[in-house]
Protein backbone atom coordinates (compact mmCIF):
# COMPACT_ATOMS: atom_id res chain seq x y z
CA UNK A 1 0.00 0.00 0.00
CA UNK A 2 1.19 3.51 -0.85
CA UNK A 3 2.34 5.61 2.11
CA UNK A 4 2.32 8.99 0.37
CA UNK A 5 0.09 10.37 3.14
CA UNK A 6 2.47 9.38 5.96
CA UNK A 7 2.48 12.23 8.48
CA UNK A 8 0.32 14.50 6.30
CA UNK A 9 -2.30 16.53 8.13
CA UNK A 10 -5.67 15.81 6.57
CA UNK A 11 -8.84 17.60 7.63
CA UNK A 12 -12.10 15.83 6.76
CA UNK A 13 -15.57 17.27 7.36
CA UNK A 14 -18.63 15.07 7.73
CA UNK A 15 -16.29 12.50 9.23
CA UNK A 16 -18.73 10.89 11.64
CA UNK A 17 -20.76 8.99 9.03
CA UNK A 18 -20.98 7.70 5.47
CA UNK A 19 -18.32 8.55 2.94
CA UNK A 20 -16.39 10.67 5.44
CA UNK A 21 -15.77 7.63 7.64
CA UNK A 22 -14.47 5.58 4.72
CA UNK A 23 -12.16 8.39 3.59
CA UNK A 24 -10.80 8.74 7.13
CA UNK A 25 -10.11 5.01 7.33
CA UNK A 26 -8.27 5.00 4.00
CA UNK A 27 -6.10 7.91 5.10
CA UNK A 28 -5.45 6.24 8.46
CA UNK A 29 -4.11 3.14 6.71
CA UNK A 30 -1.44 5.35 5.15
CA UNK A 31 -0.29 6.81 8.47
CA UNK A 32 -1.84 10.24 8.08
CA UNK A 33 -2.55 12.71 10.87
CA UNK A 34 -6.33 13.08 10.83
CA UNK A 35 -8.32 16.15 11.80
CA UNK A 36 -11.93 14.98 11.87
CA UNK A 37 -14.96 17.27 11.97
CA UNK A 38 -18.48 15.93 12.52
CA UNK A 39 -21.75 16.64 14.32
CA UNK A 40 -22.12 13.32 16.11
CA UNK A 41 -19.63 13.48 18.98
CA UNK A 42 -20.03 9.90 20.20
CA UNK A 43 -19.77 8.52 16.68
CA UNK A 44 -16.72 10.72 16.07
CA UNK A 45 -15.03 9.28 19.15
CA UNK A 46 -15.59 5.76 17.82
CA UNK A 47 -14.07 6.71 14.47
CA UNK A 48 -11.04 8.15 16.25
CA UNK A 49 -10.41 4.81 17.95
CA UNK A 50 -10.90 2.87 14.73
CA UNK A 51 -8.52 5.11 12.77
CA UNK A 52 -5.86 4.78 15.47
CA UNK A 53 -6.09 1.00 15.21
CA UNK A 54 -5.83 1.22 11.41
CA UNK A 55 -2.52 3.05 11.63
CA UNK A 56 -3.15 6.80 11.78
CA UNK A 57 -0.20 8.62 13.29
CA UNK A 58 -2.58 10.84 15.27
CA UNK A 59 -6.31 11.55 15.22
CA UNK A 60 -7.89 14.74 16.54
CA UNK A 61 -11.68 15.12 16.70
CA UNK A 62 -13.62 18.38 16.46
CA UNK A 63 -17.36 18.01 17.12
CA UNK A 64 -18.95 20.87 15.21
CA UNK A 65 -22.22 21.76 13.48
CA UNK A 66 -21.33 23.37 10.15
CA UNK A 67 -24.66 25.15 10.01
CA UNK A 68 -22.91 27.59 12.36
CA UNK A 69 -20.92 29.19 9.55
CA UNK A 70 -19.86 32.29 11.48
CA UNK A 71 -17.62 30.40 13.90
CA UNK A 72 -15.77 28.38 11.25
CA UNK A 73 -12.69 30.69 11.19
CA UNK A 74 -12.34 30.12 14.94
CA UNK A 75 -12.63 26.36 14.37
CA UNK A 76 -9.80 26.49 11.81
CA UNK A 77 -7.67 28.54 14.19
CA UNK A 78 -8.15 25.91 16.89
CA UNK A 79 -7.29 23.10 14.48
CA UNK A 80 -4.18 24.88 13.22
CA UNK A 81 -2.93 25.76 16.70
CA UNK A 82 -3.03 22.12 17.73
CA UNK A 83 -2.03 20.44 14.47
CA UNK A 84 0.44 23.13 13.36
CA UNK A 85 -0.62 22.98 9.74
CA UNK A 86 -3.18 21.54 7.33
CA UNK A 87 -1.96 19.80 4.17
CA UNK A 88 -5.26 18.53 2.81
CA UNK A 89 -8.85 19.70 3.25
CA UNK A 90 -11.59 17.29 2.20
CA UNK A 91 -14.91 19.13 2.22
CA UNK A 92 -17.20 16.13 2.51
CA UNK A 93 -20.00 17.36 4.81
CA UNK A 94 -23.38 17.80 3.20
CA UNK A 95 -27.01 16.70 3.21
CA UNK A 96 -30.02 16.63 0.93
CA UNK A 97 -33.77 16.45 1.20
CA UNK A 98 -35.83 15.21 -1.72
CA UNK A 99 -39.05 17.20 -1.86
CA UNK A 100 -40.77 19.76 -4.08
CA UNK A 101 -39.66 23.36 -3.65
CA UNK A 102 -43.17 24.51 -2.71
CA UNK A 103 -43.09 21.98 0.15
CA UNK A 104 -39.59 22.91 1.37
CA UNK A 105 -39.23 25.23 4.35
CA UNK A 106 -37.03 28.33 4.18
CA UNK A 107 -35.09 26.95 7.16
CA UNK A 108 -34.25 23.80 5.20
CA UNK A 109 -33.07 25.92 2.27
CA UNK A 110 -30.85 27.97 4.59
CA UNK A 111 -29.46 24.94 6.38
CA UNK A 112 -28.65 23.14 3.13
CA UNK A 113 -26.83 26.12 1.68
CA UNK A 114 -25.00 26.72 4.97
CA UNK A 115 -23.71 23.13 5.19
CA UNK A 116 -23.25 22.29 1.51
CA UNK A 117 -21.95 25.62 0.21
CA UNK A 118 -21.20 28.40 2.69
CA UNK A 119 -19.34 26.24 5.23
CA UNK A 120 -17.32 24.69 2.39
CA UNK A 121 -16.36 28.13 1.06
CA UNK A 122 -15.49 29.54 4.49
CA UNK A 123 -13.49 26.45 5.46
CA UNK A 124 -11.57 26.71 2.20
CA UNK A 125 -10.96 30.45 2.57
CA UNK A 126 -9.74 29.89 6.14
CA UNK A 127 -7.24 27.13 5.29
CA UNK A 128 -5.65 28.72 2.22
CA UNK A 129 -3.31 31.03 4.20
CA UNK A 130 -2.22 28.00 6.27
CA UNK A 131 -1.66 25.88 3.16
CA UNK A 132 0.44 28.59 1.50
CA UNK A 133 3.05 28.15 4.24
CA UNK A 134 3.62 24.53 3.23
CA UNK A 135 5.25 22.98 0.18
CA UNK A 136 2.25 21.23 -1.33
CA UNK A 137 -1.44 21.16 -0.45
CA UNK A 138 -4.75 19.91 -1.79
CA UNK A 139 -8.41 20.88 -1.47
CA UNK A 140 -10.95 18.20 -2.38
CA UNK A 141 -14.62 19.13 -2.61
CA UNK A 142 -17.26 16.41 -2.62
CA UNK A 143 -20.00 17.57 -5.00
CA UNK A 144 -22.40 15.27 -6.86
CA UNK A 145 -23.67 14.21 -10.26
CA UNK A 146 -26.74 16.18 -9.12
CA UNK A 147 -24.57 19.25 -9.67
CA UNK A 148 -24.36 18.36 -13.36
CA UNK A 149 -27.83 16.97 -14.04
CA UNK A 150 -30.69 18.27 -11.89
CA UNK A 151 -33.82 16.21 -11.36
CA UNK A 152 -37.25 16.89 -9.78
CA UNK A 153 -37.50 17.13 -5.99
CA UNK A 154 -33.83 18.06 -5.68
CA UNK A 155 -33.85 21.72 -6.74
CA UNK A 156 -32.11 22.98 -3.61
CA UNK A 157 -29.69 20.08 -3.32
CA UNK A 158 -28.78 20.34 -7.00
CA UNK A 159 -28.34 24.11 -6.66
CA UNK A 160 -25.86 23.61 -3.83
CA UNK A 161 -23.85 21.06 -5.80
CA UNK A 162 -23.85 23.19 -8.96
CA UNK A 163 -22.42 25.93 -6.71
CA UNK A 164 -19.69 23.64 -5.37
CA UNK A 165 -18.60 22.64 -8.87
CA UNK A 166 -18.51 26.26 -10.08
CA UNK A 167 -16.63 27.37 -6.97
CA UNK A 168 -14.09 24.57 -7.39
CA UNK A 169 -13.46 25.35 -11.05
CA UNK A 170 -12.78 29.01 -10.31
CA UNK A 171 -10.69 28.27 -7.24
CA UNK A 172 -8.50 25.83 -9.18
CA UNK A 173 -7.43 28.63 -11.51
CA UNK A 174 -6.91 31.07 -8.64
CA UNK A 175 -4.57 28.69 -6.82
CA UNK A 176 -2.75 27.32 -9.87
CA UNK A 177 0.45 29.22 -9.00
CA UNK A 178 0.23 28.52 -5.25
CA UNK A 179 0.99 24.77 -5.44
CA UNK A 180 -2.48 24.04 -4.03
CA UNK A 181 -4.42 21.52 -6.11
CA UNK A 182 -8.22 21.54 -6.30
CA UNK A 183 -10.22 18.41 -7.13
CA UNK A 184 -13.98 17.95 -7.22
CA UNK A 185 -15.57 14.53 -6.71
CA UNK A 186 -18.94 14.02 -8.41
CA UNK A 187 -20.48 10.72 -7.30
CA UNK A 188 -23.91 9.42 -8.11
CA UNK A 189 -25.99 7.83 -5.32
CA UNK A 190 -23.78 6.23 -2.66
CA UNK A 191 -24.99 3.44 -0.39
CA UNK A 192 -24.76 5.40 2.88
CA UNK A 193 -27.05 6.84 5.55
CA UNK A 194 -27.46 9.97 3.36
CA UNK A 195 -30.82 8.63 2.18
CA UNK A 196 -32.16 8.18 5.71
CA UNK A 197 -32.74 11.94 5.74
CA UNK A 198 -32.94 12.76 2.03
CA UNK A 199 -35.52 10.07 1.28
CA UNK A 200 -37.33 9.12 4.48
CA UNK A 201 -39.98 7.17 2.52
CA UNK A 202 -37.28 4.91 1.07
CA UNK A 203 -38.89 5.07 -2.39
CA UNK A 204 -36.01 6.68 -4.25
CA UNK A 205 -33.32 4.68 -2.47
CA UNK A 206 -35.14 1.48 -3.39
CA UNK A 207 -35.49 2.49 -7.04
CA UNK A 208 -31.76 3.27 -7.45
CA UNK A 209 -30.39 0.56 -5.14
CA UNK A 210 -28.87 -1.39 -8.02
CA UNK A 211 -27.03 1.74 -9.18
CA UNK A 212 -25.69 2.79 -5.78
CA UNK A 213 -21.94 3.20 -5.42
CA UNK A 214 -19.93 1.37 -2.78
CA UNK A 215 -18.72 4.05 -0.32
CA UNK A 216 -15.39 2.28 0.19
CA UNK A 217 -14.68 2.41 -3.54
CA UNK A 218 -15.59 6.10 -3.73
CA UNK A 219 -13.31 6.74 -0.76
CA UNK A 220 -10.46 4.86 -2.46
CA UNK A 221 -10.80 6.98 -5.61
CA UNK A 222 -10.89 10.13 -3.48
CA UNK A 223 -7.80 9.26 -1.45
CA UNK A 224 -5.90 8.15 -4.57
CA UNK A 225 -6.41 11.64 -6.01
CA UNK A 226 -4.62 13.37 -3.12
CA UNK A 227 -1.53 15.30 -4.27
CA UNK A 228 -2.37 14.72 -7.95
CA UNK A 229 -3.58 17.30 -10.47
CA UNK A 230 -6.86 15.49 -11.07
CA UNK A 231 -9.57 18.05 -11.90
CA UNK A 232 -12.61 15.82 -11.42
CA UNK A 233 -13.59 12.31 -10.54
CA UNK A 234 -17.00 11.36 -11.92
CA UNK A 235 -18.73 8.21 -10.72
CA UNK A 236 -20.24 6.18 -12.25
CA UNK A 237 -18.97 6.86 -15.77
CA UNK A 238 -22.34 6.20 -17.42
CA UNK A 239 -24.08 8.77 -15.23
CA UNK A 240 -21.47 11.38 -16.09
CA UNK A 241 -21.98 10.49 -19.75
CA UNK A 242 -25.70 11.10 -19.36
CA UNK A 243 -24.98 14.53 -17.84
CA UNK A 244 -22.81 15.40 -20.86
CA UNK A 245 -25.53 14.31 -23.27
CA UNK A 246 -28.03 16.42 -21.31
CA UNK A 247 -25.81 19.46 -21.84
CA UNK A 248 -26.13 18.96 -25.61
CA UNK A 249 -29.70 17.65 -25.83
CA UNK A 250 -31.53 18.64 -22.62
CA UNK A 251 -35.09 18.31 -23.95
CA UNK A 252 -34.49 14.80 -25.29
CA UNK A 253 -32.83 13.55 -22.08
CA UNK A 254 -35.57 15.05 -19.90
CA UNK A 255 -38.30 13.52 -22.06
CA UNK A 256 -36.73 10.06 -22.23
CA UNK A 257 -35.74 10.05 -18.56
CA UNK A 258 -38.95 11.60 -17.21
CA UNK A 259 -40.20 8.47 -15.45
CA UNK A 260 -36.87 7.78 -13.79
CA UNK A 261 -36.31 11.44 -12.81
CA UNK A 262 -39.69 11.49 -11.07
CA UNK A 263 -39.04 8.30 -9.12
CA UNK A 264 -38.19 10.21 -5.92
From TrEMBL:
<protein>
    <submittedName>
        <fullName>Oxidoreductase</fullName>
    </submittedName>
</protein>
<dbReference type="GO" id="GO:0016020">
    <property type="term" value="C:membrane"/>
</dbReference>
<comment type="similarity">
    <text>Belongs to the short-chain dehydrogenases/reductases (SDR) family.</text>
</comment>
<dbReference type="InterPro" id="IPR002347">
    <property type="entry name" value="SDR_fam"/>
</dbReference>
<dbReference type="InterPro" id="IPR036291">
    <property type="entry name" value="NAD(P)-bd_dom_sf"/>
</dbReference>
<keyword id="KW-0560">Oxidoreductase</keyword>
<dbReference type="Pfam" id="PF00106">
    <property type="entry name" value="adh_short"/>
</dbReference>
<dbReference type="GO" id="GO:0016616">
    <property type="term" value="F:oxidoreductase activity, acting on the CH-OH group of donors, NAD or NADP as acceptor"/>
</dbReference>
<dbReference type="InterPro" id="IPR020904">
    <property type="entry name" value="Sc_DH/Rdtase_CS"/>
</dbReference>
Amino acid sequence: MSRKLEGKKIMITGASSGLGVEIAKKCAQQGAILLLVGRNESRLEAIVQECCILGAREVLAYPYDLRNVHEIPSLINSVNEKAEGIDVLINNAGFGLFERLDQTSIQTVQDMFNVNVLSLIILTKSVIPIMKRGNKAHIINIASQAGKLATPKSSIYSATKFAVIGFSNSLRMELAEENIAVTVINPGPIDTSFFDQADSSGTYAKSVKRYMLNPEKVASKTVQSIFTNKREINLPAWMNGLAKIHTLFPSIVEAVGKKGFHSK
